[in-house]
Amino acid sequence: MPESQQLTVLCLASYEKGHDFIRECKAQGARVLLLTQTGLAKARWPREAIDEFFMLPEMGNRHELLTGVSHVARTERIDRIVALDDFDVEHAAALREHLRLPGIGDTQARYFRDKLAMRGKAAESGIRVPSFVHALNHQALREFMEQVPPPWVLKPRSEASAIGIKRISSSDELWPALEGLGDRQSYYLLEQFIVGDVYHVDSIVAEQEVVFAETHRYAVPLLEVMHGGGIFCSRTLPRGSDDDRALRELNRTLLQTFGLSDGASHTEFIKGQDGHFYFLETSARVGGAFIVNLVEAATGLNLWREWAKVEAGPRPYTLPTRRSDYAGVVLSLARQEHPDTSAYHDPEIVYRIDKRHHAGLVVGSPDPHRIDALLDDYMRRFVIDFYAALPAPDKPVA
């Protein structure tokens, strides 16, 4: 591609992630710029694939972000802006609006970051959601609690994963919790607590079409793992099963309704005791907790790299040949700083997670029963060999 036509991609990263995305953008011939926080200056970024680094003291200052990137744009022709982390989705949207670049803008970004906005939009479109109310008007809250039996969950509107979520058992618990939030009350919602299994769908979207999607089920809902302790585990759903088909269709409808035109998405649903799926949350980024490795073990496709091809590769995007195997991930906080998983040596192990005070394995096989057996065995053994528990975080950690 001639230099004058070279695509320039600006990546925003509040946390160190997206290495494969950056490398693939470079492999597609793009010029890659990275904007991150000064505290991550010495992180292990794939520097060989990054043309220019830019730093801000912190990414949350909107004025500094718009001003800084506008200065960069005086000498760099920026064609795409990509948020590598959930916390950068709104920043990327604001920059696209300011610079008039393609991709989701401020309103659409709320559907992928603001749990109140995403629930309202989904409900308007006929997608089932747990009953909810904005944690704002006290009379509306009283009416909600009269109509919807406890327990409930008090959720921050714009945090990732299960961070900051509190389970509320009675109105007597709610009012002190809201009082403790002070002026932050309006940034929360109160929601019906639904008992059931939690599922996630991980997707690639190109030109408004879901071109790739994998369905999975958590062994234990992430909320319970973070607040009650336990081992994180997820596995591929039986292909062609009723749940697999239902989730694919719900996911397709949801992402088209929310207007994601290009990118990656991680979406969660819960299956209630009534047999219906309820939408929990979605995102305009790849899933965390090594879900990228889980998907790659089952299909051979890396979500980061495929997302990069959608953003920086030739149009129309063509999905590579994929496998339709099965995979699972098991992950635990560990007592040891560098846990030794060498005693786990089954040939189905395709990835060993290397992270301080974490033990984790990803397994893959054409046989779903083998995956189930391995994960069940590993979850029992991890409790003995590695497991440690910490209080649930009330803010993101790197």
| Unreliable residue runs | none
Overall residue-averaged pLDDT value: 93
Structural class: alpha+beta
Multimerization state: single chain
Strand content: 15-25%
Separation of termini? 37 Å
Overall structural domain count: 3
Number of strands: 16
Element pattern in H and E: EHEEHEHHHEHEEHEEEHEHEEHHEEEH
- From the 3D structure, determine the CATH topology of the largest domain: D-amino Acid Aminotransferase, Chain A, domain 1
Identify the CATH architecture of the largest domain: 2-Layer Sandwich
Q: What gross morphology would you assign?
A: globular
Provide a count of the helices. 12
CA radius of gyration is 21 Å
Helical coverage, percent range:
25-40%
The biggest sheet amounts to:
8 strands, antiparallel
What is the class of the largest domain in the CATH system? Answer: Alpha Beta
Please identify which CATH superfamily of the largest domain we are dealing with.
Answer: ATP-grasp fold, B domain
Q: How is the largest sheet built, in terms of strand order? A: 13-12-9-10-11-14-16-15
